[in-house]
Design goal:
The protein is α/β, with parallel strands linked by helices. It is 32% helix and 16% strand. The strands form two sheets. A five-stranded mixed sheet has the order 3-2-1-9-10, covered by helices on one side. A five-stranded mixed sheet has the order 4-5-6-8-7, covered by helices on one side.
Length: 234
């Protein structure tokens, strides 16, 4: 009988076009593209030069859950309409435009169109930016899921107070969007902040959801010598 490896679930923070960082995290975690499940918290777009290569890599995975990020949403609007707001271009969008200079493959367009606003798995919530814990998810929307930093701020405040009181009704919540300093995700009140600054001067972090073992890339600027990170906060 053929041995089938037990699947693990991993979560990765904002990739921002850092293909080399993504590959390092996958290799260092011994991620199995056939058997393991990867949940991406959004913002594969904008910043470093390799958004297209990142999406190609993610499309190889047998089990992928992709959450829509705010940068992804703006990039998708550009892919559909050709409209490239200057505010997006200067916050990393130019790198995405250049990555798709030869056109956007239909599979990539489908990839972004099918991104989830959030996902709940085993009483754990995965969302790009945050939520309002006082409301049902059905009563919230894109502005909170993709842009709001209130939950991130409350998590950092709880961490500073060493307060472990639950911040939401979920067993755990995983968010990106708000970059944190240091090279490891931070947690308080059941919320994990996974964006360790890969879009600008930090590292990319990938975590085994069950064991909490974390795997980080080298500082992303060292993987792209001579290229400035262009994904700004937000």
């Amino acid at each position: 009988m053929k041995h089938i490896e037990t699947a693990n679930t991993f979560v990765v923070g904002d990739i921002h076009g850092g293909y080399h960082a993504l590959r390092q995290c996958m290799e260092r975690s011994s991620f199995s593209i056939e058997n393991d499940h990867l949940i991406c918290l959004g913002d594969v777009c904008d910043g470093w030069p390799d958004t297209k290569m990142c999406v190609d890599e993610l499309l190889k995975l047998g089990m992928l859950t992709y959450i829509m990020g705010n940068h992804d949403l703006i990039a998708l609007e550009w892919m559909l309409t050709g409209n490239a707001p200057e505010s997006w271009i200067v916050q990393g969008g130019q790198a995405t435009v250049e990555a798709y200079r030869d056109g956007v493959p239909p599979l990539h367009l489908q990839f972004f169109k099918q991104a989830h606003p959030f996902v709940v798995l085993n009483d754990c919530l995965f969302v790009h930016a945050g939520i309002d814990p006082s409301k049902d998810l059905a009563d919230q929307g894109q502005e909170l899921f993709l842009w709001d930093r209130t939950l991130a701020r409350k998590t950092l405040e709880a961490l500073q107070r060493n307060d472990h009181s639950p911040l939401t009704k979920f067993k755990e919540v995983y968010i990106g969007h708000t970059p944190i300093s240091g090279n490891q995700p931070l947690t308080a009140g059941g919320v994990w902040m996974m964006d360790t600054g890969a879009g600008w001067s930090g590292v990319l972090s990938m975590m085994n959801v069950n064991t909490k073992e974390t795997f980080v890339s080298d500082p992303v600027p060292s993987l792209y010598p001579g290229v400035a990170g262009r994904a700004k906060r937000g």
